[in-house]
Predict the 3D structure of the following.
Amino acid sequence: DSATGEETWVARYDGLDPIMASDAAVEVSARPDGRVVYVTGNSEGFETGNDYATVAYCVVQVIEIDIKPENDTNPIDPRAYGVTPVALLGNESFDVTEVDVATLSFGPDEAAPAHDLTEGWPFSDPLRDVNGDGVTDLLVHFLTLETGIQCGGKEATVTGRFMSGFDFMGTDSIVTVGCSYEAMVKEGQE
């Protein structure tokens, strides 16, 4: 935590020498917004000698999502009109009410939500317990054609930012449907 200095995660750097390496941090600092942590130190190896090393770690919280919450296989027809529902699943370390909904995007083409979540969903509340665990989740719909998901795709990712400015991302598996073999060859998927 760049504000308090408390350890919240650990990442280790193993130098470039595949045989024997000795790496030691000398200085740790963070960008003022806390989104990038820099570690500078020594990296010594049998084949590489003694070098200086600086590593930048980007702080991105990984969240759990459920694409098409009512379906375990998550079928998506990349050519279909309509929307793809994605649930951002809340838990004790992820409060969905802290999400800046204006920053949400889904798929390779980073589609924005299909509906303005700041105005209230016209049919139902996007804040609900989707998976029945007693914790509030956020259900968002994205226009399928805007996601950039291609025939043969195996997973899709949601990215966004908390109101505090920190980034998050979540990935779930998908199965593309409605794709002919010829279309998949044309798109380079087979």
In short: Residues 22 and 36 are 24 Å apart (CA to CA).
